[in-house]
Design a protein that fits this description.
Layout: E1 2-3, H1 4-9, H2 14-22, E2 27-30, E3 33-35, H3 43-54, E4 59-60, H4 62-69, E5 79-82, E6 94-97, E7 107-110, E8 113-116, H5 118-126, H6 131-143, H7 149-158, H8 163-174, H9 185-196, E9 203-208, E10 211-217, E11 222-227, H10 235-250, E12 254-259, H11 260-265, H12 267-288
Parallel strand pairs: 5-6, 11-12
Antiparallel strand pairs: 1-3, 2-3, 4-5, 7-8, 9-10, 10-11
Helix pairs in contact: 4-5, 5-6, 5-7, 5-8, 7-8
């Protein structure tokens, strides 16, 4: 990938550039940006073209930076780019950000692309994401071993006064990164359902004996698995599910399972079952208490 500005600096005139475009030696990726040969249709090539289109000093940021760091599952169609100067023209498919400060500590490279650092990306995300989505980004950063809380706190201090810095600091006071990392969309939807219903929050993806349990209410001895469709229809998975349930029952845990259909189409049924189990566990614990 190469920009028109770079070609001119290399000594090619406007006519020479147009000739190479006409003869197919340069292929237009977006206005003012070319590929030498056919660029593969990857998101990295899309990002590289967007960065070249925005000029020197441009870096991937916000949701696009989160996608590059793999903090979120989705790669947004519109590419977020931060530039260190005013006057950058709007570009189709690019959301241009012009931050007041883009310090050297806030910028790095990943897969050879300039991008905001993980701690700066989290501050940018905190200005737009929901609280739970921000928690998920923190969980993923911790899981991928990208999170250095000392760097995050230093970045928050450098950017004090920004809404994102204040909000990220607030979330970190009550959320332990990595503690509620969900692995699938169904697990996430179940966790959100439970949290918004006001039920006690469970531990998430907990190693227990030879298994990892999706959700665990340890004091209530309740273990919940979410069954995500096709994978649980396979014979090998059904056998593993049966072994897990038997082990949990033998270890004095109550195994409970919910399907995708129950979580999404019959949430009241799911919550009623959970409330009943948790209430019964609390009553049994009270009955066992001395006095």
């Amino acid at each position: 990938m190469i920009s028109r500005t770079q070609l001119l600096r290399l000594g090619l005139g406007a006519g020479a550039i147009e000739h190479r475009v006409r003869t197919g030696r340069l292929l237009t990726s977006r206005r003012g940006v070319y590929s030498v040969g056919v660029a593969p249709p990857t998101r990295e090539c899309r990002w590289a073209a967007a960065l070249l289109a925005c000029g020197p000093g441009a870096v991937l940021s916000h949701l696009s930076a989160a996608a590059l760091w793999e903090l979120r599952p989705l790669d947004p169609v519109t590419i977020d780019v931060s530039v260190p100067r005013r006057g950058t023209r709007p570009r189709r498919g690019i959301r241009v950000h012009r931050p007041r400060h883009l310090d050297a500590e806030d910028v790095t490279r990943r897969h050879k692309l300039p991008v905001t650092s993980v701690h700066r990306t989290l501050i940018d995300l905190a200005e737009t994401l929901s609280t739970r989505s921000l928690e998920r980004a923190l969980d993923e950063a911790e899981f991928l071993r990208l999170l250095d809380l000392a760097d995050v706190r230093a970045s928050i201090q450098r950017h004090r006064g920004r809404n994102g810095a204040a909000r990220l600091a607030k979330v970190l006071t009550r959320h332990e990164p990595g503690a509620t990392r969900t692995r699938t969309a169904l697990e996430e939807d179940f966790y959100v359902l439970v949290s918004t219903a006001g039920l006690p929050k469970p531990e998430v993806n907990v190693p227990l004996g030879p298994f990892t349990v999706d959700f665990l209410w340890r004091d209530s001895r309740l273990a919940v698995e979410t069954d995500g469709g096709a994978s649980h229809d396979r014979r090998s998975q059904r056998e593993r599910d049966s072994r897990r349930d038997a082990w949990l029952a033998a270890a004095d845990y109550q195994p409970l399972r919910f399907t995708w259909d129950q979580v999404h189409n019959r949430p009241a049924e799911v919550l009623a079952a959970l409330r009943a189990k948790l209430t019964n566990a609390a009553r049994a614990a009270s009955d066992r208490a001395p006095g």
